[in-house]
Each structure stands twice: as C-alpha cells, then as structure tokens.
Design a protein that fits this description.
By secondary structure, the chain is mainly alpha-helical. It has a domain of about 70 residues: Rossmann fold. Helices cover about 45% and strands about 10% of the residues. The protein has a 3-stranded parallel beta sheet with strand order 1-2-3. Helix 4 links the parallel strand 1 and strand 2. Helix 3 crosses helix 4. About 15% of the residues are buried.
C-alpha cells in the first residue's frame, strides 16, 4: 500500500469517512458507486433481464443494486465457482461459467430473456 498519493483535485476525488463507519464497510463504497453509476448510465428499467459479466467486488455490488432496483432476471457470468455461488447468494438467478459454456453461452443466455 502506498504511503503517499498525488491527487489532482481532492475536492472531487476524496471523501472523508465518518467516524461511525468501519473501514471494512467504507472500502466497498467505491465499488457500489461504480456499479450505481453504470446502472444510471444504462437503459435499465424495472423488470428488465440483465447479464452481469464478472462477480468480483463491482459485479457483486451490481447484482445487489439490480435486485433492489427490480431487475426481472439476473444472469451471472463468472469462471470461479466460489464467486458464481456468491453471485447467486446476493441476488443472481442463474450463473454460468463462460469458459465451460463456450459457444453455447449466448444461446443459453438469450433463451432466458
């Protein structure tokens, strides 16, 4: 971890963490904000079926926000079995390993919508 970092415009790039928010929770806020912005910039609407490609921190945040936002069906694409399972636990409806599915993946995903 770096001891120093150059920040061009701290007014827009830094946020003070309130004393009552544990660091373990605060560290996830960037992932949640990134996922939220992605939803806002998309054409997502309640009831839409969505595909989340990747179930790491941003993808998992996205799955939760989509579920809360009323997504119709959430498909998770993730090679890691552990992350696929977590994606389902956090709101995904079905998960595929895109490497194993190969050329059949597109047809399987399209059949769900």
């Amino acid at each position: 971890m770096a001891e120093y970092m150059l920040v061009k415009d701290p007014q827009y790039m830094l946020t003070r963490i309130p004393d009552h928010v544990p660091f373990e929770d605060a560290v996830l806020m960037d992932c949640i904000a990134t996922a939220y912005r992605g939803i806002r910039q998309s054409a997502f609407g309640m009831g839409d079926n969505v595909v989340v490609s990747g179930a790491a921190s941003i993808g998992l945040s996205l799955i939760q926000l989509l579920k809360i936002g009323g997504a119709g069906h959430i498909t998770v694409l993730q090679p890691s079995p552990m992350k696929r399972e977590l994606g389902l636990k956090l709101g995904g409806d079905i998960a595929f390993n895109p490497i194993e599915e190969g050329d059949t993946l597109r047809d399987k995903v399209m059949a769900l919508s």
